[in-house]
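Q: Could you fold this chain for me?
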Amino acid sequence: MSQIFVLSLFDPQADLEMVGGKGASLTKLANAGLPVPGGFHVTTDAYKQFVAENGLQPRILAALQDVDTAQPSTLETASAHIRALFTQSSIPPAIAAAITSAYLALPTPYSLLPTPSLPVAVRSSATAEDLPDASFAGQQDTYLNIQGVDAVLDAIRRCWASLWTARAIGYRARQGIDPDAVSLAVVVQMLVPADAAGIMFTANPLNGQRDQAVINAAWGLGEAVVGGLVTPDSYTVNKANGQVVAREIADKQVMTVRTENATEEQPVSASLRQVSSLTDAQIVELEQLGVQIERLYQMPMDVEWCLADGRFFIVQARPITALPEQEIAPPTTWPMPDPKSKYVRASIIDLMPDPVSPLFTTMAFKAYDAGITRAMSDVTRSKALLPEHFLTINDYVYSDTRLNGRQTWWTLTRMLPSFPRMIRTGVSYWRENGRLPYADTVRRWEGQPLATLSAAELLDGAREIVRAAMFNLTAQMVWMGACAGSEMLFTRVYDRLVKRPGDPDATAFLMGYDSTPIRAEKSLYDLSEWVRAHPDLADHILNAPTADLVVHLTASSSLFPTPYSLLPDWPDFCTRLQTHLNTFGHIIYNLDFAKPLPLDDPAPMLETLKLYLRGEGANPHERQAALEARRMQATEAAFSRVKRLKGWAFRKALHWAQSLAEVREDAFADIGLGYPVLRRALRELGGRLVDARTLEHPDDIFWLRLEELEQAVAILDRGAALPGMMARIEERRAFSRAAGRVTPPPVLPTSAKKVMGVKVEGMIAVGEGSQTDNTIKGAGTSAGQVTASACVLHGPEDFGQMQPGYILVASVTTPAWTPLFAMASGVVTDIGGPLSHGSIVAREYGIPAVMGTGVATRRIQNGQTITVDGGAGTVTLFAG
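A: Sure. Below is the predicted structure, expressed as structure tokens.
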């Protein structure tokens, strides 16, 4: 393919790779009919050819070898050397000829100067700039009022050299961008002789309000505003009606003006200093242009504009970076789809304590319903008649408990009589029909080259993995409910027929199994012991900020060495930690696959590793071995003295309870077995939507509904242009954040006392309205009493706050939280019951636990003294 050195500003070939971020954005604006000054692009092909013909790339890389981002002087030295190389190099004749021809062909609507002296702006446009997650604003140079062919060629060469300023080198190094992969285009545009100029944000950058635009304006060219040399006028505009809701007229002391061959700052005349630089009509006109641009990009934009002879011109537009999250009022009502039904948050919904993502809702719910119908049809040997299991109210998951006549009849005549069969065959049914096919599906997709698949194939793969994951989960439900019954029955039999004073509690017979969560805990502990044997490495890990450790775990550029990569044991540590993550990183924090896994963010594991290095955690090998020995000893002692009918009843109840307890935690831990490859497939698809400028980040895909994603995939594989989706995504994010600030009622209507004939109290979390005094009620799930300070953790991102001896307070705890129990003196959760993971682990650690309080994370303050009574199921709060 032949090289292209120059493209018209309107040329459809002017994409990001060819003309950089700024250039591609200007072409998009121009082709949408927005008032963009005429001009042309000098492409990245021209830059690459200039570098190649002058032999610069090897010398650039050589100059970067001594760069250390922690030492600014090394950045300056490298930059000065590289920029000198550019200054001493000549522009190849073919490139110079193409630029000269394009410059001389420019029209002259804004100037009386003849074409050979037409003033232009020469702006750098890097291939990694003006992007939603990396703006690179101000990293390369811009030259204004450049006149004549020689001056334009010189300015272009200086723009190319500005790719290697000290700040640009450092910025790219911190962003992890390979210096071999960057190049630069240049935009040459006719210079508008602006009377006023400035910046417009199509969303309020101070408060994140998307319904407001903010305009900064000053006299003269825009450089004084962009460069912060003048305090500009500021106007805040309501985008719905164009009304100016706030106006600040500044004392504008300087302005940027054209001189004969450049620009300079001059004083503003006294008559204009405190005069508004825009009229109300001009403010509205500019704001409407901003709305057009925002609709074009489907995201809030940072727009540079200028005004000449009463006409507005757009000279740059890029996504706003670091825009505050939009805030809306949290929901205050909980509308029920069917006012005659009852909706509860219980059972597997415990694994969805937060508002769920749209993609999870629309992909997983249908798969779960299909799975539970299939599983119940299999075990009842009849066609299951079940309602749709899940729905969302204010983005929280609820279960509809109402059954119609046919469903009620099927439940009474088919499902209930099948319970004995479910209990006998449930575990084997799950293993053969749920767990094994799920693992096979995961293995097959782990071997797929995701980057080579079409968008439709990726989406099909995601659907297949979700179906397998949800059927694995529903197959567990066949026997998981029996776990509670088996433990209750065994406890009753043991307490009445076997237990004597001084004997252990019934729970001692059900602990000490080498489950997946325990093996994960042992693996991390073993890694800490290995690190401890390497003192220099241990010292670095203990003293380094966890965020820095996470960054350097994936840093691989030899051009920018770090203190970590210079440690001889660091590569081995990275390999060992990655092995641990590959083995156990699928253990979920949340059933919603949009939520990160331990594999995605190792920070919580690193915090636990530091805990072990400080000697603050209990040895999980010793704990599990002691519990196993205690179980075996208690079992042998009971068998030795219980005979005949009592012995038969005890053995039957114990065998049933132990067989389910042994497998329960393994099944729970493997719910997310397919989530790592599922998330990779979806993020690969999301990355393609980012390339199509539909999304800002690959993870935005989780905020789409399945039907929206299906439409986007169909368009993507056709190679057609995709609409932007960020506006609707931001609205959904804002509502989800607002919903996350309220506590969902555990049952709707809130007045309900019974659900399906069963009393609500004790079955689900306690409602917020009933928890108003200094004693919070819940389910006591691990006996004992402790008074200590509370450590309130809202998610894995807070793991580093946990301190030894504190009481762990959380919304819910899954197997991924297990290592924190080594430090806790007690546990309190919003959600959960006697068979929840937190309850089981609390009993293993012998610490009191109260689950299902509904409001613990909102009522209890971090550091507050509380008393946890696991026997009474209460948490007492103390003032101060």
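A (continued): The domain at 765-877 is CATH 3.50.30.10 (Glucose Oxidase; domain 1).
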